[in-house]
Write a structure and sequence with these properties.
Length: 147
Amino acid sequence: MTKTKILMCPVCGGKTRDRIRADTTLTNFPLFCPKCKRESLVDVRHSMTTVIREPDAIGVKPYMFAPYILADNPEMSASEAITASKELTDGHKGELFVLLISFFPWLMVGTLTLGLGYIYVLPYVQATITNTYYRLKKVTVKMESDR
């Protein structure tokens, strides 16, 4: 029987469900991690894994909540707030992407009314993003206290 090795997640370092042999060669392999629920593209040659691309949702800025974090923690530096924002959005990029896309029709209404619709649309967008920040913050604090 040939000896196999479990592929480890390049993002969180957790075990995946995929095994490779020493003579396995993979190119552009979508490696899914059940622990962090992310998919990364990897190449495997001679039992060495090379990350081609780590996952990231298009249009979701991992630092989008940095101003909120700075407002809640004025003693934090900007780089610390950006790092905290990246951690807060970690694992929620797909959800945030769908949320941001859902505003597209509303923004079109604002454009079609020659900007007058923005009086209603922009506060709605900002309030929704603010509520999303507080919800994610609450979920993150709950998850940390459960550990």
